[in-house]
Inverse folding.
């Protein structure tokens, strides 16, 4: 594996995640870990894990998810906006809980 992928691998493995106590909302580290699992699977499937970098692979994954939305008959732009809304709300929640 190309060393530039190490932080992504650590997030996916849970070795770079933040904490989550009982009753607390997940923090960005935990949420990013879920994204890292998806990104690593995509990078392996597209052979970017050795030669590509996470930034390029993330853009490609987002593009492929938009293709998936098309195939499923979903509005890709609407899904992007909804995803950004979720992200913004989760960041507000993290700020409210102080983590």
């Amino acid at each position: 594996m190309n060393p530039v992928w190490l932080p992504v691998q650590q997030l996916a493995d849970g070795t770079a995640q933040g904490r989550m106590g009982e009753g607390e909302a997940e923090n960005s580290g935990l949420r990013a870990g879920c994204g890292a699992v998806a990104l690593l699977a995509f990078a392996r499937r597209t052979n970017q894990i050795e030669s590509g970098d996470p930034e390029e692979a993330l853009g490609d994954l987002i593009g492929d998810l938009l293709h998936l939305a098309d195939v499923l008959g979903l509005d890709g732009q609407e899904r992007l906006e909804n995803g950004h809304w979720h992200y913004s709300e989760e960041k507000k929640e993290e700020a409210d809980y102080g983590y």
In short: DSSP finds five helices and no strands in the chain. Confidence is low (pLDDT under 50) at residues 19-24.
